[in-house]
Amino acid sequence: MLRTFFINLLIFILLLNFGARILLCETRAGAEECFEIHFEAIINASFEYAADYKSCVNNKNVKHIAVRNQKRTERDRIQEAVAAICTRFESCNILINNFDYFQCIKIVSLENMLDTLTIKFISTIALIDLDEELNQAEKDFMKCSVQAEHKYINATASAYLDFVLCTDT
């Protein structure tokens, strides 16, 4: 956002400079026409940049949504395991006899420990994958936005060169 502001500020300053050249009675034939052509090229470059940048943002958002949806399965598996752990402990709570209760907790705890290890394994793998996939989405976005900026800078530089050549003739 800040980068876009500075680019637009630079364009504004350049346009003021070009306007000043025309207002200072630059008498070459067609200077105003050159300025209008240049101004139109700058506007077109700005619109193209805005469209390209918006496309980059949309692609990033689509990738983030896809990553979240992919992780839904792991999340469901974890929630099922947590529910199973809670259900097992709750089944022991209804026992009145202390011996039966502690025996139940002992058995259930072993099963729950296996589920807890499974939860830890699933969540660790999912977290690593999620981090890598989101980082890749961010890298792709940065590459896309830099390409859009490069295209924009080339277009404005070309428009400036055309303007200079037009006004020097």
Characteristics:
mainly alpha; 169 residues
Question: Can you offer a commentary on this structure?
Answer:
This protein has four helices and no strands. With 169 residues, the chain is an all-alpha fold. The chain has a domain at 57-164. The longest helix has 71 residues, at 98-168. The chain is rod-shaped and about 105 Å long. Mean pLDDT is 82; it is low at 22-29.
Indicate the low-confidence ranges by residue numbers: 22-29
- Share of helix among residues? over 70%
Give the beta-strand count.
0
Rg: 32 Å
Determine the number of helices (DSSP H or I, runs of at least 4 residues). Answer: 4
**Broad structural category:** mainly alpha
Q: For this entry, what is the oligomeric state of its chains?
A: single chain
Rounded mean pLDDT score: 82
Note the main sheet: none
Q: Helix-strand pattern, N to C?
A: HHHH
Distance between the termini: 38 Å
Q: Based on Cα principal axes, name the global outline.
A: rod-shaped
Into which percentage range does the β-strand content fall? under 5%
